[in-house]
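Exercise: predict the fold of this chain.
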Amino acid sequence: MRERLTVQQLIDEDTVATTLRKGSSARHATAALQTLLHWLGFDQQLKWERFGADGGYGGATVAAVAEFAKRNGSTARGQTVTAPLARSILARYDSLEELKQLADDVNEKRVARSYVSGGGDRIRIAALQTLLNDLGYGEQLAWQRYGADGGYGRSTRKAVAAFAAREGLDGDGAALTRAMAERIVARLGRSYGDQWHDPSHVSGPAPGSLSIRSVMGQGNKQALEISDGVRRKRFRRFRLGLFSTGDQKPLSFVESNVEKLRALGVTQSEINVMMAVAENEGNLDAINTWDSAFLSFGLFQWTGGQRSEPGELPAFLARVKAEEPDLFDKYCGQHGLDISDIRPAGWESSKTGPITARFVLRGQTIRSATDKAQLRQGPWAFYFWRAGQDPAVQAMEVKHALARLEQFYDTDSYTAGGHRIAALVSSEYGVGLILDNHVNRPAYVGRCLEKALDRTGLGNPAGWGTEQELELIAAYLDIRVTHGGSPMTDAAKRARVTKKYLDRGVISDQRGSFERSRR
């Protein structure tokens, strides 16, 4: 979340007290503070309906800061936000976010078993304890003795039971229900469904800005509608993020843009293969900001990487930046998004292409999970979805998807039975199957082919013809259905889709029919 990062940066730079003070000219930073206080439930003091996040540190902001300080054991009068007070504001915001996630993790009856009796995610239980203490249940929590220890024990049970009784909710405190979690959030901050609402644009978009509002979507479920004044998109909510399956079909794009792809150096044979696998993959404008990888986009659902790891999505953008810099600036650069830590280095002049990289946001390399969390916010979902509507971006998606072959197809670092994969499989049909497998379970391609070699007893592939390759493929397809602790998803169904394009004559099963580009 950008407002949180703005305040955190002031704390890190030791400038928070000189920046966030009455009469400050730092309107951007003040607006970030006001937005955080808004989400924490201080609309009355902020006079939110009248002023919103206007960036002016006046009497209303002073009153909101003073009230927050009072509720959190500080005697600050609101004229200035000290570093300790700023850290307290961020800690409250983080606690609310943790509880929102906890609320999503429980069903309508009880908290997930792993959360009780001290097990499960202690961070979220600590958040629950902190918020209950803020609501006045310190005595039941035995706060002075235990604080926020992250254990769902007897004291926490008493506090949850007392909260439920006061709110008229069912429950003896033995478990936290979703209704309880959502009520706590509502008591301390904005209502649960409004966590994504961006009040700074409620009057409608100016050119280049975004209008963001909460709406009810299909099935009476909450959604977020975002518009830049030209295009409008409604995203569905899930957990702490948003998603859209998109509507830009890769197969339709590939079939209609052969010349555009050929101009990018993609061979007709590669186009044929992409047609055969595209139906199994995501839409070109698909977006997801709710799962553990923070932000996923496009044809192969490239991600920002889990936890503090780099990701394949920044690597895709690195290709766009290198080959189509104006396109990159249109959808990323102008919004403060850049790329760093590309691996392997020097990919621009190599066949391999980038595998992973990191995002850089407003000059700061995004490394930690905490920093990555800001990529869940509505504007980023919209910017990437909007990029996925652009045929130029779609063409780069297809090119980058095919470049995945360079990771495993014809390299000594990825082999099966001592052979390069390219020596074993050289038909368009076979390449389509293994590419589809590699996207779904990268480590399984070589292992499944190795097992297929053992099962068929086929010898040196240098002497194979089409008959031998098809024999290997048949064994491979049977093996991959059940191979591994977590077998390939819908392996048989995905194989039938690829086979459909063989039957239609789109791809060939003749050995040697696959022609690779020489990028």
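Check your answer against the key: Residues 199-238 form one domain.
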